[in-house]
Amino acid sequence: MMETIGVVGLGTMGLGIALVYAQAGHSVLGFDAMELARLSAPDRLNATLQPRVDKGQMSEAARAVVLARIRITPDLAALSPAALIVEAIVERLDAKQDLFRGLQSVAPSAVLATNTSSIPVGSIAAGLAASDRLIGLHFFNPAPVMKLVELVGHPGSDADALDLARRLTEAAGKTVVACPDRPGFIVNRVARPFYGEALALVEEGRSPGEIDAAMLAAGYRLGPFSLIDLVGADINLAATCGLSDAMAGHPRYHVFQALADQVASGNLGRKSGRGFVFPDALPVAPPDAAAIALRIETTLINEAAWLLSEGGVTEEGINTAMRLGLNFPRGPFEMLALHGRAKVIGVLSDLQTRAPAALKRRYDPAPALRAP
Ligand SMILES: NC(=O)c1ccc[n+]([C@@H]2O[C@H](COP(=O)([O-])OP(=O)(O)OC[C@H]3O[C@@H](n4cnc5c(N)ncnc54)[C@H](O)[C@@H]3O)[C@@H](O)[C@H]2O)c1
Question: How many angstroms separate the alpha carbon of residue 87 from the centre of ligand 1?
């Protein structure tokens, strides 16, 4: 008998997560505090699978089987049979803590997982009787498509709870990477310089289009500005500000004025019809494309090395997370192997020399890079 999975919060992420486990054969119990969300969930689930049915990747009958495994309930207590309950509600500490206070008695032995992107898992667990069985399971959007899930423990979390969440999620086809309970986990943190260093180049007079073209020439499917245009400059700014605050304003997470100005201009990307480069075609890569890519990759490598120095994660884990979470052609430590430690340290040193005073510490090499 396969374990029952609970999902709380039937928005973008919750519905996607429900589909992940239902497609793997689990019964899923879904709850949302809003009646409208509960009532519309079946239609939204159906619509999510429609493109696959249209393309012939899934039969109507197979879709019906998957959807029949998902039961929506107006009663949180109905989640009691679940072995794993994933929370994907509003990103607010008080709301998440209230919910988990209810869930810990509803399901006295279930593993409780939060899909938070930005709240420390340890602070959600703090004060809960069930803090040991509360962990982070960070899915990426769209959850049924994105292979990566970041698994987040905290100092009080139980190894068995982490194991169960990993086992069920891997069996549902995901690649699960363990990471520390640090701001941004792996992907949202190590990605910062991909955008930040590109924005630094723009502030030095380069165009977003030529920077994206340089990254494409280096093997990336999307450059930093096309990626910002896809997700929205406002979303990127919020994530950048969140990391900057969580990291006490360290210049490695500097909020570049070029990004704030872009948001203020209203040209947020695809959703507003114009962004940094959207809808224009990219220019040809500039003559110094390799140097642009090396500079951006150097800062990605350094951020990954700082995260590695803090513990709780492996080089392989960071490589995998960046390849799967952002579609990078190679992980940061593969970039390091490609360029060589000496070159990377040299680029950081040059950047530090040329940086304005407020940004010099942005280029301090991580201890893991300095060690021979
Ligand atoms: N959207 C993303 O790209 C993304 C990616 C990874 C993680 N996350 C995280 O996932 C979570 C959900 O994000 P989303 O984008 O799916 O949000 P959403 O707004 O699409 O959905 C949230 C749902 O939760 C419901 N809800 C709110 N408070 C509730 C409560 N107290 N009890 C039960 N239901 C409640 C809402 O009615 C809504 O249906 C957040 O923590 C977010 O940070 C989002």
Answer: 8
Give 68-96 pLDDT, tens digit per residue: 999 999 999 999 999 999 999 999 999 99
Q: Give the model confidence (pLDDT) of 277-304 as tens digits.
A: 999 999 999 999 999 999 999 999 999 9
SS3 for the chain is CCCCEEEECCCHHHHHHHHHHHHCCCCEEEECCCHHHHHHHHHHHHHHHHHHHHCCCCCHHHHHHHHHCEEEECCHHHHCCCCEEEECCCCCHHHHHHHHHHHHHHCCCCEEEECCCCCCHHHHHCCCCCHHHEEEEEECCCCCCCCEEEEECCCCCCHHHHHHHHHHHHHCCCEEEEECCCCCCCHHHHCHHHHHHHHHHHHCCCCHHHHHHHHHHCCCCCCHHHHHHHHCHHHHHHHHHHHHHHCCCCHHHCCCHHHHHHHHHCCCEHHHCECCCCCCCCCCCCCCHHHHHHHHHHHHHHHHHHHHHHCCCCHHHHHHHHHHHHCCCCCHHHHHHHHCHHHHHHHHHHHHHHCCHHHHHHHCCCHHHHCC
- The answer, yes or no, to whether any atom of ligand 1 lies below 6 A from the CB of 11, is yes
Q: Is the shortest distance between the CB of 188 and ligand 1 below 6 Å?
A: no
Q: What is the mean pLDDT of residues 4-10?
A: 98
